[in-house]
Structures are given as C-alpha cells and as structure tokens.
Design brief:
The complex is a heterodimer of chains A (813) and B (122). Chain A has 813 residues and is an alpha/beta fold. Chain A has five domains: 4-111 and 244-304, FAD/NAD(P)-binding domain (3-Layer(bba) Sandwich); 126-240, FAD/NAD(P)-binding domain (3-Layer(bba) Sandwich); 493-549, no CATH class; 553-628, Sulfite Reductase Hemoprotein,Domain 2 (Sulfite Reductase Hemoprotein, domain 2), CATH 3.90.480; 636-788, Sulfite Reductase Hemoprotein, domain 1, CATH 3.30.413. In chain A, helix 21 packs across helix 24 (771-788). Helices cover 8% and strands 37% of the residues of chain B. Chain B is built from one helix and ten strands, in the order αββββββββββ. A four-stranded antiparallel beta sheet of chain B has the order 2-3-4-8, with no helix packed on it. A three-stranded antiparallel beta sheet of chain B has the order 1-10-9, covered by helices on one side. The relative contact order of chain B is 0.21. The chains are: A alpha/beta (813), B mainly beta (122). The interface between A and B is medium-sized, with 26 and 34 residues. Strand 39 (809-810) of chain A pairs parallel with strand 2 (27-33) of chain B, so a sheet runs across the interface.
C-alpha cells in the first residue's frame, strides 16, 4: 500500500509530540516530512529558563535529536521557513524554493512573542524570550553588559529576570499592573513573591507604562516611562505575552480568529489541514502552557491515525514557577468569583500562603505559596470535581494530614489510582508509567522520562515519578527488578538471591561463575552482600567468608577513627547484675580503657581498645560470663526494655523478662542490616518500641507487635502488625518476621524501607494470616540459630583467627 | 637460595616478614616498624603488596579494608587505593606510600624504604 504523505510545518514541542503519538499507534501509515524554521531539532522550550539560569544546558533539553527523525524515517528540513500553502495542489513551499506534497498537513507554527509597539523596539539588545537564539543573546549580554530590564512581570518575564540575575546582571522588572503574575496569583501571593524576589536582588518597577526605548549607536541604553522616569538598560527583554502565529494560515485563506480556528478534533476549516499547539484557537481560547498542547497532540494523532475517537474539550491549567527556591502553584479560579468561598492559611512572615477557592463544596481554584507539594492533589480534586465537605477542616494542611502518620505502610504513589495524572505537562497517568516500567523493564527516572515523557518537561513531578518507580519495582516480586547489585554484574539483588536459593549456590565463587560476574574478585559492595545471602539462605551448607566481611564483622568490634576498636558486651534486655558491672569496671581498669559510654541501647561501650588487645579483653569478659553484643554487625543488636510490671506502678506486662527472652532467642543472628528490638511494659512505651525494627508493647490483654520502625536519619514510626496474648506467640511472631526479613530484604536494607517497599499488607499476609507459613519461618530461624548462636569473642579469646589480631612481624630498632 | 637469603640479610634492608600463607587470601597483616605500620596484602591471585597502613584521606588503617583485585577499600570512608602503586582510585586523589616486596619462594621480604613518588611516606 502506498503511504499517504503527511507534512508538518513547525518543529516545536506540540507538533513533534503529535508525530510521536502518531508513530506509537500507526507507524506505517504516513510518509512524514517536517519543516522547521529554527536550526535545531526539537527541544524543550519550557526549560529555556533553567538554561538561561545556567542550571541546564541545551543538550539537556533536547527532546528529539536529528537521529530520532532519521530513525523514524522522517524527512527533516531545518532552517526552512514555509511561506506558502497551495491548498488546491496540496503543496507547501519554503522561502528557499523547497516544496513538498501533502495528503494531510499539520500546522504547528506556534506563537510569536508580542513586541510592545514603542519607539526603539527594533534597537540592538531588544529581544524576546522565546528560543535558543534569545538565550544566546542574553547569555552574551550578561558577559558584556550590566543592566537588564525585563518588560513584563508574568511567568516568563520573572524566569528571564531570575536567569539574568543568576548570570550576574543588575535586573529590573517593569510591570504595568500593580501585581506580578496577576494572571496566576492573587494580590497577597503576588506581594509575597515580589518580596522574595527582591530579597534575591531583583528590582521591580510596578504600575509603569513603557513609553520609549532610548538608543545610542544603534544599541539600547535606557527605558523611559510615561511618568518621565528613565532607567539604564543594555538589554531589554520583552515578555509581555505571545500571539498565535497565523500568518501562513491566513495567507492560505484558512479561517483564523486570534489563532487558527480548530474543532474538537484539531481540524481547521480545511479538513485536510490540522493545527496544533500555541497557534490554534480552540473554543475561543489560545493556550500557552505545555500540558494542553500535549492533550491536543494526542487527539490530533488519534484522528490522523484514522481511529476517529477522542476529542479535545479544553483544559483546566495549573502553573508552577521555575525559579529555584521559590515554591508556587496556581490553578483554576484562583481569585474567586460570585458564589465562591475561600479557605485561607496565611503566614507572610513564615513565607507560607495557601488559598483554596471552593464553590458548592468543590475546589475550583488554588494558590499555594511557600509549599507547593500538595498542588497536584488539589489540582486532582479540582478536575475530578470531588465533594470536599468531609475534608474541609483539614483540606488546607494537605494530603498527608488526612491519614494517621505511622500507620500507613503505603506511600503516596501507592495510594494513587491508575487513572490519576502524574505529569501534568505531558498528561501521563500513573497507569501509563506503571505499564511502561513493567513492560519495558525501566528502572531509572531517566528511563521513565524517555519512555513515558513523565517528568521530562517542567520536572515538578519528578519526586512522584520516583515514588511510582520504586513502588512499582519494589512491590511486585515478579516484575523486572531494580538496578544491578553493583558494577560487577547485571543481576539485581533479588535475582542473585533467587539464584542462590534455586540453584543451591553455596560459595561466592559459585555465585560469580554461575551469574557471570564481570570482575573476578567482586568488589567491596557485592562481596559482603553475597556472603550474607549465602549464609542466610544456606546456614548449614555455606561457609562464612570472613574476608568478604566488613572489618567490624571480621574483627567483632567497631573500628574507630583512630584505628582503635570499641567493645560492647551484651547486657540481656538491658538488665545488669553487680557481677557484670564489676566485670566491666575491672576490664576497663585492667586494659586502661580511656572512655566508656552508656549506649542508646542500654549497654556499656568501651572505647579505645587496641586491636591486639581485643582477644584478651574478650577472654577476660568471657570468664565473667559476658558475651559479644554484636554492636558491630548487620545483626541483632540490642533489645531495649523498660522495667515493666515487676516494679513500675503502671506496668501491665513483664517487659524486662520478655526482652531477655527475645534477646536470648535471636542473638548472634545475621540480618540484612542492623536489627533492633524493644519491649515496653505498658502503652506509655518508655522503651520506645515504636521506633524499632520489631517493637513489643505490653497491654492489659497481652502484647502489641509493631514492625518497621526507625529512629535514625529518617524517623519512621512502626506499623502495628497485630496483637497476641502469650509469650510463646510473641517469640514465634518475632522469629518469623525476622526470618522473612532475613530471607527477602536486600542487603543493607533496614526493615523500615523494606516494609515500605513490600507494603504492610504483604507482611501481614506472611506473618499474621498464614499460620503455617509463620510456624515454618520461625522454624527456619531457629535452625539457623543452631549454627549462628555462639559467642565469637570466646572463640577468638581461645585462638580462632589469631592472624586477625597479631602483627605479621614487629621490626625493632 | 640460601646464598640469596644471606645476601639479603647482609644488606640489612630486605626484611623477611613471613610466608605467603601467614596472610589470608584477600587479606592483610601488619608489620610494625619504628616508622609506623606497614600493611602487607595478599590478593586472591596470591600477589603480595605492601603499603603504608594509612589512608591518604583520614589516615584509616588500610590493612583492615576489603581487598579485591589489586585494590583495597579503606575501612573508614571507603576510599579505594591501588595496591601496586598506593595511588587512590579516581575521583579521589592521594597516595599511600608503597614498599618494595621481594618473594623468595613462599617467603616474603620487605624493604623499609618506600618507593619514590609518594608524599605520604612518613
């Protein structure tokens, strides 16, 4: 079948997006030719501001390079401006005489910046902010000149001002109304923005009408206003708005009215000719933001592919300002009108302002200043017309305030529906991203950008995309997995674990041979992981490879910055006897331990012990009944307890004994990362069990079991797993949870991120609902403990691994 | 063989520090000298190297690091140091002095004068 000819005039974001959408659904239908007036392939125009500010480069913002056109069989004419359409013969003609025939034509001619009709607007140094050329001129001016004046205090003007300021120019912004960005912000937010930008060093001339640009030797040198004031200007950037570029369409007799008029399928009055992007007028509106243009592109592609479904019915738009350090979001009817009411949170001094506009209990507009992370959520409520009457009293505080912090077990991305939009620039839903991640095997944000375009435009949904990525890759075990373990292999942590388990690999060389390790000796990143996977999967069969362990685990003590070691004996459940205290005092005295500290885990840390002395220190402690506290290992560390019902007038359970029992059961076990437990004797929770990997809280009727807490860099409260009645149940659940963590988490993954990754429901299924599975996991734990529950200190005091603690040779004199 | 050992002893510079099997594969042992510790490494291929036992970064004892190929990772902040030259692997910059090693069969001999070209020799 002979292919139809499709010609596109204009090579910008909207047009090329249409082609991309078309190639996705009908790759062979057309022979495609593209004419672009600029010398560049398709780049991301809305990221010109970061380029101007020096935060990104032109290379970063290229969306489709020349290779892309070639690869897709598209004929690309750069630097060729089409000046005539011959609708009768269905041909287009460029300035230089190049012509092309079409069966279908797309007009994607974009818009032109509006230049104020004032004298001097053609002087050198007077430009708009529209394309790479303008950015080049501005960057050049910033190197050679001092004073920049931006005319127009809208979104684009402020981004230009910020960029030039960052490049070291003195910047003044002229605005004819009293409020900056008055098309996106209400006066309060506008004043806060102005104050912020003034603090960054920008000057504002608001309520000023430009009368004339004054030049010298052909180059601009000052701006004069109607009130007679003059300001110096070596560079004038006009950012007072855009006009749809309709010249070509009009010359061909296509109906235009402040834009090329199109219907809901993006067709012009000539049915063979479509129009798309900033050049069109749809239902009387010309859009200048990228999200609506991409929605148009989808519809247009759908019709070009002869599917004939999908209509574009207009867009609600939202805005974010791309100025680093300024958080701003605006959407919908932000000013409010008749019949609307406002919810306000205003803290001008703290730099926070939130205004939500409601109509009939539905959100119709929002302005956020200072904090904008809930913008997407508000925008979603707005577009879906959700009745917010039940949320009114908490609505202003954002989505995270709706749930119980600490009992979620789900990230925000997890709570989103598949149809929820993630990237508002490119109209990509969560479902699209998840599907791409799974079917195409994506695992980086860059891949997601590349394949779905989410986060590839303004970048403000980057965080959300990352969440979806991690949620998608992490939650589903059969899905293509996260990134390779390290540079030595292409296999992921989970693949390696599976291979070790399924093929019964029992040594590091076995694993490396079977999985084709690229570096024969591995590296300090994969070797400790492999060793852990081996001994946790095959406790009886695999041999612990000490040379693949980090020094602390090899030496059974914590290396300190001066190369000495610290020693922490185990104090079961944090309780101590006179003899134990005396033993610690004696060892400290005998070996001149320079410093001791009580640790956060209710133990005593002896600092500054020399490596050669470790076996003697340990022998001394072992003789007095003290064993290793494993304070140095990815292992069971400590079980912290409160005093409990023996003494405490509030205690309802014997937390100290429970702590001792748990510690006696689990000590010596190796885990993917350090593992801490705590037991509190009543809900007052003095042992802080709710920030531990496994926390037990006594209640009148028994025990509450909590999992996945962390008190470190990122505090995470535990999730409540369940309640149980007896001591035996506590031990079984504790052992089963720990074993499943040992078997399934990735090396160096604490329980907190692990629980978040796999989700609390999964943990509950395994540990609570499946009684048989729980018992089996508990059993596997106990079996492993038969091998690993021993005191490594006592062994070494008796001579094991002597080489580790003695010099090879002492040279004297 | 004996003649060679005698020559070394007479030289008063080459010091016999032990045998290859005294050092674990992928491991290191320390030679204590009046001028500071020297770490003697043995990799999986049984090559022997000697470096001043002090990372050029913050002085961490390299003898306590994980050894892979011809590289050791410092236990304090994971700088990677080349065993044969003592030079830090890019992007880190710095150098731990390296010492000449001579093998006589299983026996390891060490010269206490470091190779030239590294400032971190004291």
């Amino acid at each position: 079948m002979k292919r139809m000819k499709l010609v596109m005039v204009g090579n910008g974001m909207a047009g090329v997006r249409t082609l991309e959408e078309l190639l996705k659904i009908a790759p062979d239908l057309y022979e495609i030719t593209v004419f672009g007036a600029e010398p560049y392939a398709n780049y991301n125009r809305i990221l010109l501001s970061p380029v101007l500010a020096g935060e990104q480069t032109i290379k970063d913002i290229m969306l489709n390079d020349v290779d892309w056109y070639e690869k897709n069989g598209i004929t690309l004419h750069l630097n060729k401006k089409i000046t005539r359409i011959d609708r009768k013969n269905r041909t287009v003609h460029a300035e230089d005489g190049t012509s092309a025939e079409y069966d279908r034509l797309i007009l994607a001619t974009g818009s032109n910046p509006f230049m104020l009709p004032v004298p001097g607007n053609d002087l050198q140094g007077v430009i708009s902010f529209r394309d790479i050329h303008d950015v080049d001129v501005m960057v050049d001016a910033a190197t050679n000149y001092k004073h920049a004046v931006i005319i127009g205090g809208g979104l684009l003007g402020l981004e230009a001002a910020n960029g030039l300021k960052m490049r070291g120019m003195d910047v003044a912004v002229v605005h004819n109304s009293d409020n900056l960005m008055e098309r996106q912000l209400d006066p309060v937010a506008s004043k806060m923005l102005q104050k912020n930008l003034e603090d960054k060093g920008m000057n504002f001339l608001v309520g000023k009408q430009t009368e004339q640009l004054i030049g010298k030797d052909g180059r601009v040198k000052a701006v004069r206003f109607k009130d007679g004031q003059e300001v110096p200007a070596d560079l004038v950037v006009m950012a007072v708005g855009i006009r749809p570029n309709t010249t070509l369409a009009e010359s061909a007799g296509i109906h235009c009215n402040r834009g090329i008029v199109v219907n809901d399928t993006m067709q012009t009055y000539d049915p063979r000719i479509y129009a798309i992007g900033e050049c069109v007028s749809h239902r009387g509106i010309a859009y200048g933001l990228v999200a609506p243009l991409f929605e148009m592109a989808k519809v247009c592609a759908n019709h070009l592919a002869e599917y004939g479904i999908g209509r574009y019915t207009g867009s609600v738009t939202s805005t974010k300002l791309k100025v680093t350090g300024i958080e701003l979001f605006s959407a919908g009817d932000y000013m409010g009108s008749e019949g609307t009411e406002n919810l306000l949170l205003s803290d001008p001094k703290g730099g926070l302002y939130k205004k939500l506009v409601l109509k009939d209990n539905r959100l119709v507009g929002a302005v956020l200043y200072g904090e904008s992370e809930d913008g997407n959520w508000y925008f979603k409520l707005m577009r879906e017309g959700t009745d917010v009457s039940a949320l009114r009293n908490r609505l202003l505080f954002g989505e995270t305030h709706l749930g119980d912090a600490g009992h979620g077990g789900q990230s925000k991305a997890a709570a989103m529906k598949d149809c929820d939009q993630v990237c508002d620039c490119n109209g990509v839903s969560k479902g699209d991203i998840v599907k791409a991640i799974v079917t195409k095997g994506l695992f980086t944000l860059d891949d997601v950008k590349l394949h779905t375009k989410a986060a590839a435009s303004c970048g403000s949904c980057t965080g959300l995309c990352e969440q979806i990525l991690s949620h998608t890759l992490g939650g589903e075990y059969s899905a293509p997995e996260a990134k390779p373990m390290c540079k030595c292999t292409d296999a992921t942590h989970d693949q390696v674990r599976a291979a070790i388990r399924d093929q019964k690999l029992t040594s590091i060389p076995d694993v490396m041979n079977t999985l084709g390790w690229k570096r024969e000796d591995g590296c300090p990143s994969c070797r400790p992981a492999l060793n852990y996977y081996l001994i946790s999967t095959w406790p009886k069969e695999a041999k612990d490879d000490y040379q693949s362990r980090y020094i602390n685990e090899r030496a059974h003590a914590n290396i300190q910055k001066d190369g000495s070691y610290s020693v922490v004996p185990r104090l079961w459940g944090g309780s101590v006897s006179v003899d134990q205290l005396r033993a610690i005092a004696d060892v400290a005295e005998k070996f001149n331990v320079p410093e001791m500290k009580i640790t956060g885990g209710q133990r005593i840390d002896l600092f500054g012990v020399k490596k050669e002395e470790l076996p003697d220190v340990w022998g001394f402690l072992a003789d007095r009944g003290l064993v290793s506290g494993h304070a140095y290992g990815k292992a069971l560390r400590t079980v912290k307890t409160c005093v409990g019902s023996d003494w405490c007038r509030f205690g309802v359970q014997d937390s100290t004994q429970m702590g001792i029992d748990l510690e006696e059961m689990t000590w010596g076990s190796w885990t993917p990362h350090k593992y801490k437990m705590a037991v509190s004797g009543c809900p007052r929770n003095c042992a802080e069990a709710t920030i531990k990997d496994f926390g037990v809280v006594g209640i009148d009727s028994g025990w509450e079991l909590h999992v996945g807490g962390n008190g470190g860099v990122k505090v995470r409260a535990t999730d409540l797993l369940c309640r149980v009645t007896t001591r035996e149940e506590v031990l079984e659940y504790a052992g089963a949870f720990m074993q499943i963590y040992r078997e399934e988490a990735r090396y160096l993954e604490r329980t907190a991120p692990w629980v978040e990754r796999v989700g609390l429901p999964y943990i509950k299924t395994r540990v609570v609902d499946d009684a048989e599975g729980r018992a089996a996991a508990y059993q596997r734990f106990l079996e492993s403990q038969e091998i690993y529950k021993f005191d490594p200190w006592a062994e070494r005091a008796k001579g094991v691994d002597q080489h580790e603690f003695t010099p090879l040779k002492v040279v004297t004199g | 063989m004996n003649a060679v050992v005698k020559k070394v002893a007479m030289d008063q510079q080459w010091i016999e520090v032990g045998t290859v099997s005294d050092i674990p594969k992928d491991g290191a042992r320390v030679v204590k000298t009046p001028l500071g510790d020297i770490a003697v490494f043995r990799n999986r291929q049984d090559e022997i190297f000697a470096l001043r036992d002090k990372c050029p970064h913050k002085g961490g004892p390299l003898s306590q690091g994980i050894i892979y190929g011809k590289t050791v990772a410092c236990p304090l902040h994971n700088w990677n140091i080349a065993l044969d030259t003592g030079i830090a692997v890019a992007p880190d910059e710095g150098c731990a002095a390296s010492y000449p090693i001579r093998m006589e069969g299983e026996k390891v001999f060490l010269l206490l004068t470091p190779n030239e070209g590294c400032p971190n020799s004291q």
